Structure formats: structure tokens, C-alpha cells
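Preliminary data (for renewal application), phenylalanine complex.
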Amino acid sequence: MTVRDSFHSRIGFVLAAAGSAIGLGNIWGFPTNAANNGGGAFLFVYLIVTLLLALPALYAEIYLGNQAQKNPVSALGEACAEKMPKFGRLAGKIGLSGAIMMLSFYTIVAGWMLSHALSAFVALLGFNDISQWLATDSTVRNVVFTPVFIILGAAIVHQGVHKGIEKWSARLMPILLMMLIGLIVYILQQDGATEGLKQYLIPDFNQVTDPKLIISAMGQAFFSLSIGVGGMMVYGSYMQKDKDIGKLVLSIGALDTFIAFLAGLLIIPALYVAQHAGQEVFVGNQLIGEGQLIFQILPALFSTMGAVGLLVATGFFSLLSIAALTSTISSTEVPVAYLVEEKKMTRAKATWLVSGVVLIASMTLVAFFDQLFGLVIQVLTTMLQPLSCLFYFIVVGWVWKRGNKLRDKALQGEQRWLGIWGNYLRFVCPILLTVVFINVAF
Ligand code: PHE
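Predicted structure:
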């Protein structure tokens, strides 16, 4: 029997999981949501929701994978073995299709980032026509860049867990952090930035009870921490059993939230700098189009920096591409692990097969963009992800008995804190999530 590939260190696991969590959701989704929902008020609610619900869900997902040391379909099947094995496996497969759904739109957006990075780079070299084409939205551009991005992700997953995922996450993540900080330092020196800073850091407490804001913050937190499609479960399964998951979850959550916070610190002041320079940014209190935020306002701002601006633009969009890449590989790993372990496929074959399916799915979205793009995002983030998390809570708290140490501790009242934690997952989380879910759905 071949030994299962794994992360070689705890820090390797944390960086890979943080790499999965930190992506377009942090750098694009979070600031967009914050700008549309009152800035500071959104930040405040986001932090609370992350602590109360998203981190416990992340814990449950990683715990399930870590105990099973298997792919999500087998892991959920085993956890439900006594009561409903078929249903457990089915839930695993639904999560797996969620990962494909996520990839189908994510690789398109990631392709835009890649083409904008290239656009700034070729402008630097003086090829202005090509640069213009690369910066302009078109179906042809999607048909070129989405596959390029899918192939990049596949090339990393193909190399395996330690050599591919762990090494690349550890290399790429620190670069991302440095670039972000550099850009913030620049932005904060521009006129108008202080107003943005105030808007972002001082919450208006009249807004924090707005249901629309709470729901946006909740969806954002789930998407941002990559919960509910099995990506974190499969990474948890590649970590040695019985590590202190609580601490690891806190580190991942802290890193993810910190990067989202930094992205807000860059983008919200940037919006106000743009406004100060005479650009129209908001209509009422809503942003003018979400695409606008990244692809027009920021490049316009970069261009005020002169020639350096093109370098900064290249850096910024490369940063987004890198962040998207480490998120893409975690979703790809979900079906790949399943095919390798259960269908006895080679990793190479599984990787290319999954990438082929993702390519077909994403090209379908490109072909029917107006009808499908927003719909897929909505179904995934407001239905599939919250429902999967609810299922994890119920499995960890109620269904899975034999071998479920957390449940034992909760019932026996052993080790006080673990017991309290177990009961929090059993009772509070499912109720809280159901309440929010009902609000989202109806
Ligand atoms: N968390 C990633 C982001 O913020 C997206 C993601 C969702 C990745 C689900 C994997 C699974 O961009």
C-alpha cells in the first residue's frame, strides 16, 4: 500500500490552509462588501460573525477530515456510518460538486486578474494596443485566460501535497503580504485617503443591526474561510492526526481576517482618493458597479503614479492572481483526492480529468454569462456552503458517535473547555446558522 501524501509540518498546513482561505474573496469581495455596507459597520459585524460561526464551522470541517485521514466523501461516509452512511457520502459528493461550482466562476475571475497583470506589464514594455485589448472585457479574452489559469492550478496540484501545494503556498503567501503592505503605505500618503480610513475604521453603530448587512457579512465570512465545499476537510486529512486543531484554526482565521482587513485598508482609502481626484465612485451609498472597483478605479489611480504606476498595477494584479491560485488548488484537491483514493486513479490522471470538467463548466458560464455567472455564485455562497456547514455541525455534534472524541468530551463533561466547546458546536452553532440561513433564503 502506498503511503498517503501529507503536509510535512504544522506550519506547512497552516500556510496551505491560509492560502486556500486568502483569495479573491478577501481582496475583492471583502472591500466591495464593506464599501457597499457602510465600511466600519461591516467590518465590525464581519468580525463578530467570524468568531461566533465561521471559525467553529472551520473547526468542524478540519476536525472531520483530520480524524478520518481520508477524502471528504469517505470522511463524511465514515462519520455517518452508524446512522446514515449513504447520506454522509452523498453530502460529501454534494460538497465536491460545490468545489467544481466554485472553480467554474473563480477561474474566470482569476483569468481577469491575470490578463490585467499582463496588460500593465506589456504597457510597461510599450505595447499599448495589446495592453488595451488585455484590459478590455471580451469573450475571447475569457476563452484564452480561464484555461491558462486552470492549467496553472493543475500544474501545482499535479505535483502532490508536499511538493506542490505545501511548497507553493509557503512561497507565494509571504510575497502577497509584502505587496499588500507596500501598496497600503503608498495609498495612505495620497490626498483623500484619511476620509476613507475614517469611513473604514469608525463603525456607525446604527447600521450594525441591518439584516442585509449581517447576511452579507455571514456569506462573506463563509466564502472567505473556504468552508463548506470540502477543501479544508481534505487539507485537514493531510495533517497528522490529533494535532491541536483549535490553535491551528485560530491561526488560519487570524491570517485570513488580517489579509481581508489589509485589503480594506488599501481599497477603501483608494476609493476616496479616486473620489477626491474627481472620479465618480459611489451612487448614493453604493459603489458604481462591482467590477468598476478593481478594474477601473484602481488602474486609474495607478496611472496617476506615472511610469511607476504600471509597475504597481502589474504587482497588484499579480498579487490577486497568486491569491486566487492558492485558493483554486484547494478546491481542485477535493475531487482529485476522491478520485485517487476511491477510484484508484493516478494523481496525474485525476488532476487532468478534474481540470477538464472545470474547463467545460467554466466555458459554459462564459457562453451563458449573463444567465449563469451570478446565479452560480449565489447558489454556492447562500445555499450550498451554509447548508454544508449546518450538516458538519449536526454530524460532529449528534450523528457521529464511535471515535468522536469531541462529542465524548462534551457528553462526559471531561476537560471543561473542550466540553463547553463541544456543546457550543452541538447546540448553539446549528441554531444560529439555521436562523441566518432562513433569513438568507426567504
Ligand atoms: N476562500 C477563498 C477566497 O476567499 C475562496 C474559496 C472558497 C476557496 C471555497 C476554496 C473553497 O477567495
